[in-house]
Amino acid sequence: MKKIEFLEKFKNKDKIKGRPIRLNQQILVPKKGADYAEVVFIGDCHFGSPQFDKPRFLAMLDYCIKNTLYVFLMGDLIEMATRESVGAGIYEQEVHGQSQYEQMSNWLKPLAAKNLILGALTGNHEERVYKSTGINITKILSRELNIKYLGDACWNTFKVGKQTYSIYSLHGRTGSRFDGTALLALERISVSFFADLVVMGHTHKLVSSTVLTQRIENGLVKEHKKTLLITGSYLKYDGGYGQTLGLPISKLGSPKVKFFSTKKDILVSW
Questions:
Q1: What's the CA gap between 103 and 74, in Å, rounded?
Q2: According to the model, what pLDDT value does residue 91 have?
Q3: What is the percentage of the chain residues whose pLDDT exceeds 90?
Q4: What tens digit of pLDDT does each residue of 214-224 get?
Q5: What is the structure's pLDDT at 89?
Q6: Rounded-to-integer distance, Cα 30 and Cα 41, Å
Q7: Could you say which DSSP state residue 47 is in?
Q8: Which of 169, 158, 170, 123 is nearest to 39 (CA)?
Q9: Rounded Cα gap, residues 135 and 132, in angstroms
Q10: pLDDT value, residue 270
Q11: Share of the chain above pLDDT 70, in %
Q12: How far is 89 from 84, CA to CA, in rounded Å?
């Protein structure tokens, strides 16, 4: 096969599965009898850390499988401490990096097999490996699970019935001690993006807020609701850096977001 033919054959697949994409377009199917599709935003699990709440995390995955819920991966799924990492994580993590990757992949495979994973962002903990070796493990995980790799941040559209929702997603790099300051940081980020939902991980907070704006459309003043969401974590407080630094205790877990099919509305719960 000629080189150019080989590249043409595989370029589309690589674009979807291997390289970051600017717009992740998804069609979400509501469950029978429901007027909404539900997405669980899972991130900041930090598997490998002694503070990783494994029972809570596995219970959430099981809940998503049993209820056929869509999942969006927000990054920092694994701890992946290296010699260059801040602190003593390389000595404290309970399993080494390869085992972290393989186990997380195995946990996610049942969801991927049912086409329930809408995409995967990379987090700063996965980025540790890239900085040390040039190897992008979120990209590798996405290829293995046959899901969309979204890079550090990505636009998304979710079509649910008659409605189409715009979502701007990012793992984030901002640090905040309190729920309010974390939301303020996300609100500042969201100014650049006209979206129905702006969603971010990283801060380990589990909070949401709504910003209302107005615009003129067809000669009428219309209101637009933008939902801001920070997606929580599975990192227990006692014995962790949060306790060491005296940070506030945050609620653990993942938010569930309903996207309604017959009306343009979003509902966040946890």
A1: 17
A2: 64
A3: 73
A4: 989 999 999 99
A5: 65
A6: 17
A7: B
A8: 158
A9: 8
A10: 87
A11: 89
A12: 10
End-to-end CA distance of the chain: 53
**Who wins on pLDDT, 34 or 175?**
34
| Residue 136 and residue 122 in contact, taking contact as beta carbons nearer than 8 Å | yes
Look up residue 146 and give its two tokens.
């046959």
What is the spatial order of strands in the sheet that 266-269 belongs to? 117-120, 70-73, 36-42, 256-260, 266-269
Q: What is the pLDDT of residues 45-103, one digit of tens each?
A: 999 999 999 999 999 999 999 999 999 999 999 998 776 666 666 767 788 889 999 99
Task: Determine the Cα–Cα distance for residues 204 and 104; give it in Å rounded to an integer.
Answer: 19
CA atoms within 13 A on the CB side of 87: 13
What one-character DSSP code corresponds to residue 207? E
Residues in the chain: 270
Q: Are 257 and 267 in contact (CB under 8 A)?
A: yes
- The whole-angstrom distance between residue 181's C-alpha and the CA centroid of its chain comes to 20
- The two structure tokens encoding residue 167: 């979502």
Query: Can you state the angle between helices 124-133 and 137-145, rounded to 10 degrees?
Result: 110
How far, in Å, CA of 222 to CA of 39, rounded?
27
Q: What is the bridge-based pairing of β-strands 256-260 and 36-42?
A: antiparallel
Task: Find out whether 242 and 230 touch, Cβ atoms under 8 Å.
Answer: no
User: Quick one: pLDDT at residue 175?
Assistant: 81
* Residue 42, φ and ψ in degrees, nearest 5: -110, 125
| Nearest to 49, CA basis, from 249, 233, 270, 254 | 233
